[in-house]
Task: inverse folding
């Protein structure tokens, strides 16, 4: 329902802005969008951002909707050591907050609960970034081995070192399918949102084949409802990001959903969003 309303709103803004864009020209209309704080400026900004996104996202949807591997945009965005979201400093949205108070820290108590209940010997994090989360757990559970995988682990390896902590560079799906990583518990934070629908299914097949019996996810929902039922469906959101109804996909892969809830998180810059936290086990 919300997706339909958003599409209608976007279409209305484009229709309303088109005559002004045609009369004023692209350059002047873009200037108005940046400088005019009144209704026309807001309309101009809304028109320009939505028109650009519509055409760009249409192309991305067509290229990625049936793709069962990482999109080119995701690989380019997360492979570079310097451009990578979690570089040598804390993730910018952390705003200096301790890990427990950051958005990526929302998954900490969920994973802690699984470790307490299921006593895994090997834990894998997909999309480890600068390694803060895996290192946080490694310090508290010296009898458990933690492995973090990402396209860039340069900064993770520089920041953290422990006998029960390993960082692997590469595409996690390839490593899982090659049998190079196995374990008991797998978790990810704001990572599965970058998987295409077919890639997500392929990941879950590989996760099961690698022997994982527990999975914990913390993923943005983009204001859309998450349903704790058997429906596995997805919507393309923007750029390389997707909305997935994770409970449905996990159930299809043979997981029982033991925890499932949504929460709001407000970033230091004031922007807020919904995050779904869920736990599945086999």
Result:
């Amino acid at each position: 329902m919300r997706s339909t309303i958003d599409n209608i709103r976007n279409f209305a803004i484009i229709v309303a802005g088109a005559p002004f864009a045609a009369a004023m020209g692209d350059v002047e209309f873009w200037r108005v969008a940046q400088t005019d704080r009144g209704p026309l400026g807001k309309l101009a900004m809304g028109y320009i951002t939505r028109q650009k996104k519509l055409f760009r996202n249409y192309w991305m949807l067509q290229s990625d909707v049936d793709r069962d591997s990482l999109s080119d945009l995701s690989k380019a965005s997360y492979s570079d050591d310097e451009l990578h979201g979690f570089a040598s400093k804390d993730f910018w949205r952390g705003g200096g907050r301790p890990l427990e108070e950051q958005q990526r820290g929302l998954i900490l108590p969920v994973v802690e609960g699984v470790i307490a209940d299921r006593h895994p010997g090997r834990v894998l994090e997909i999309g480890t970034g600068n390694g803060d989360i895996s290192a946080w757990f490694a310090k508290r559970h010296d009898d458990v081995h933690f492995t973090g995988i990402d396209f860039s682990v340069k900064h993770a390896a520089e920041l953290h070192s422990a006998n029960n902590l390993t960082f692997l560079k590469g595409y996690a799906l390839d490593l899982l399918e090659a049998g190079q990583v196995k374990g008991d518990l797998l978790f990810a934070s704001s990572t599965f949102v970058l998987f295409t629908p077919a890639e997500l299914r392929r990941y879950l097949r590989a996760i099961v084949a690698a022997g994982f019996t527990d999975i914990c996810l913390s993923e943005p929902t983009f204001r859309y409802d998450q349903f704790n039922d058997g429906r596995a469906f997805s919507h393309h959101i923007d750029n390389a990001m997707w909305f997935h109804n994770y409970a449905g996909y996990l159930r299809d892969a043979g997981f029982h959903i033991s925890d499932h809830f949504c929460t709001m998180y407000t970033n230091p810059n004031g922007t807020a969003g919904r995050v779904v936290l869920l736990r599945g086990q086999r």
